[in-house]
């Protein structure tokens, strides 16, 4: 199941949107189509379901919808903003362990 990572904050509208990563402090800006795809991915149980909803909502061919959904999912995953499957375990912060007050 595709989902946004913890500590990411989406701001999504039909006119576009952005996702803030607390990890990097950066915003990733989304086109209206990408924002719609993210909304559908978050609300769906699979990429296939999101693609079906996208095709129905915008009256586009199923193949185009599937390609659009896959592109957004892969792009956000490669940027570290999303993942497929359960949330990975948090890594401990090495520098903090050696810190003393």
Features:
101 residues, alpha+beta, Outer Surface Protein A, domain 3, three-stranded antiparallel β-sheet, two-stranded antiparallel ribbon, 5 strands, 45% helix, PqqD_sf, PQQD, PqqD family protein
What does this protein structure show overall?
By secondary structure, the chain is of the alpha+beta class. The chain has one domain (2-83): Outer Surface Protein A, domain 3, CATH 3.90.930. Helix content is 45%, strand content 23%. Strands 2-3-4 form a 3-stranded antiparallel beta sheet, covered by helices on one side. Strands 1-5 form a two-stranded antiparallel sheet. The longest helix is centred in the C-terminal third of the chain and has 17 residues, at 62-78. It is globular, with a radius of gyration of 16 Å. It starts with a strand and ends with a helix.
